[in-house]
Amino acid sequence: MINLSKSEFVKSAPRKKDFLLDKPQVCFLGKSNVGKSSLINAICNNRKLVYVSKTPGHTKMLNYFLTDGRFYLVDAPGYGYFKDRSYDFETLMLDYFRSSGKCLKRAYLLLDVRRTITEDDFATMEILNQFGIAFTIVFTKADKLNQSMKAKAQNEIQKHLENFEVIMTSSTKKTGLDDLRRNISTALNSK
């Protein structure tokens, strides 16, 4: 299994010319404020690896982390919340998906389990499908669910995501992290 604890920041890529395409990689993406940075820190056992901002929309570049000396874990900007109108999330991500080819082994689409799945989330799934990128749905913040919220979340999964691979996680309670680590390891070790 890949040692995600051996992850270190390599570079940020604001444009296509800055992308790293020399190693296999997995990409984490999702709506701003979904808990992406916290989850990456949790699976890598390093609370300081990725900056966790209290302000949504903080990440505006692809951030590459060299993992176990052999792979990149890529932290993509969040979508759905931008104060800076000069920033073009869609172009950056489409360029990345077009450029990454066989380097991108799997995308992890993070969704807040307490929220309804949005048009932006479904559009992202559609784009991943169009590019033929395998992806896993990762629900975050599972520790914040009460019983009725759990029932609602289960209903959403059955209604909209029954044909998708789904992992339920909590960065705080550390639930689902081993499942996610195994999934990443399998994706990166596949041909």
CATH topology: Rossmann fold
From the N-terminal CA to the C-terminal CA, the straight-line distance is 15 Å
- Can you identify the CATH superfamily? P-loop containing nucleotide triphosphate hydrolases
Q: Name the strands of the widest sheet in spatial order.
A: 1-3-4-2-5-6-7
Q: Provide the residue-averaged pLDDT.
A: 87
What's the CATH class label? Alpha Beta
The helix-strand sequence is: EEHEEHEHEHEH
Largest sheet: 7 strands, mixed
Shape: globular
Question: How would you portray this structure in words?
Answer:
This protein is α/β, with parallel strands linked by helices. The chain has a single domain (7-189), classed as Rossmann fold (3-Layer(aba) Sandwich). Helix content is 31%, strand content 22%. The chain is built from 5 helices and 7 strands. Strand 3 (62-67) and strand 4 form a beta hairpin.
